[in-house]
Every structure is written in C-alpha cells, then in structure tokens.
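Q: For a teaching session next week I want to show students how multiple molecules come together into a single three-dimensional assembly. I've collected the sequence lines for a complex. Could you give me the predicted structure tokens for the whole thing so I can convert them for display?
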Amino acid sequence: GENVEQHPSTLSVQEGDSAVIKCTYSDSASNYFPWYKQELGKRPQLIIDIRSNVGEKKDQRIAVTLNKTAKHFSLHITETQPEDSAVYFCAASEAAGGYQKVTFGTGTKLQVIP
Amino acid sequence: EAQVTQNPRYLITVTGKKLTVTCSQNMNHEYMSWYRQDPGLGLRQIYYSMNVEVTDKGDVPEGYKVSRKEKRNFPLILESPSPNQTSLYFCASSFRGLGTEAFFGQGTRLTVV
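A: Of course. Below is the structure for the complete assembly, covering every listed component.
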C-alpha cells in the first residue's frame, strides 16, 4: 500500500520568514495530493491541493510543488503570520473508478514566532 | 449550512462495551471515510465508502465495523472496544472522484478504560 513520509515533524520560523514542509510517497499510482491545516482542537481543513498532471500550484501565500519522478511534493508558505501556526498534513490519494484511498503523512507542527 | 456532524464529541467507555459513533453529512456526498488521529502517527484511514452499500477497508480496519445504508450516514461501530482504540476519530465526506475536497466532522475523542 501507499506510504507517505512527512518532514520535519516540527518547524519554528520567525514571522515573515518562509516555511517549507516536504512529503514523499511510495505508490506511483497516487494522483492527487492535498494539504490540510489543523488548528489546535479543530478539524483538518483543506488549504491547497495538486493533481499529478500539474507541477506547481499557488494560492496567495501558499504554494505546492510536485515532482512525480522523485515522488515528492512540498508545501511552501511565504511571509508567515502567527495565524499560520498549526499542524499541517500532506496526503496522497489514488482515485480510479470504484476505488478511492487516502494516505496521510504524520503531520508537521508549525510555530510562527511573532 | 454544509456540514459533517459527528456524535458524540467525547466518550469514555469500558473495555468490551459496544459503541457506535455516528456521522452524518448534508452535502449529498457519495464518498465518506473514517480516520483515527494519534500523536506522531497522523491521520490513518479506518474504512471508507464509495456509495450506499459499498464499503472498503482502509489502513487500520481491525476492531472496527461500518455500514452505509443511507447516503448521508456512515456510523463507526466498535463491537468490543479495547484501550488501544483510545483515540481522536474523524469522519470525512467528499464528492466521489479525483481531486475532491474532503470535509471533516468536528471529531470524537474516545477513551476506553
């Protein structure tokens, strides 16, 4: 089955700096890669996603890059703000016909220091 | 308001006492799924359902059952809970198919003593 590794497990940055979180996956059949943000005591919420036919996607201060050959994808947050402090999860999903399975990474706790 | 609702939010139970955690969504989503969240392990998929009467195992299905008799509901059943099932559980739903956002419920914190 799919295995998703996520690094680092914790990350502290100064406000205004950039943060990068990296994930690798094992199953070349995975074709959808979402990122979720989970604030303390709350549910995960989608912040950005990318499909396997796209190399990069950007939404304001966040961006995701995908390297299918190397089987890795990364989340980039620029100009970090205190409200970016949360746990971030990457995921790899395979959806085809009657099959749809999602595997999450173990999470990165991001702390933005004012 | 579009939402995924889980009940109960908190539950303390004893080993071996059957319990059910309910999950309901009002977005007409075909796909529903259950996850457990444990420190250092992230979110692990327990079971998922592609549509009514169609369910399949995720990565950690042992000790759990599910059913999907109606499109909106996807209950998680623990027939004989054990302490290693103490965890935070999330239900999620989405439209079926590639690249669809999963909407999560608010979570159920289960403690088995």
